[in-house]
């Protein structure tokens, strides 16, 4: 019976391919060839995942930018509404003053 690391593509008991084991290069003594292969595998994984990550980063950046612009737009809109309300308040004060003048003049 072959061990799991002997290169047998299928586990003879279960008929499944063996899973890769996580290796800590600081604890285990690895040959330079093994370290080189690990770096190549990591680079291949990064190149595979990079376009998807870049797309997600762009979408996230655009979403955050849209949120910031919406907040600024709402702020400017609120300030313009405050001016409008101030004008209404001034008109209301003037109307009260006219009403008070009429009431005291009568």
UniProtKB/TrEMBL annotation:
Belongs to the COA3 family. The lineage of its organism: Eukaryota, Metazoa, Chordata, Craniata, Vertebrata. GO terms for cellular component: mitochondrial inner membrane. It is a single-pass membrane protein. This is Cytochrome c oxidase assembly factor 3. The chain crosses the membrane at residues 58-77. Pfam families: Coa3_cc. It comes from Pongo abelii (Sumatran orangutan). It is found in: Mitochondrion membrane. InterPro entries: Coa3, Coa3_CC. Core component of the MITRAC (mitochondrial translation regulation assembly intermediate of cytochrome c oxidase complex) complex, that regulates cytochrome c oxidase assembly. MITRAC complexes regulate both translation of mitochondrial encoded components and assembly of nuclear-encoded components imported in mitochondrion. Required for efficient translation of MT-CO1 and mitochondrial respiratory chain complex IV assembly.
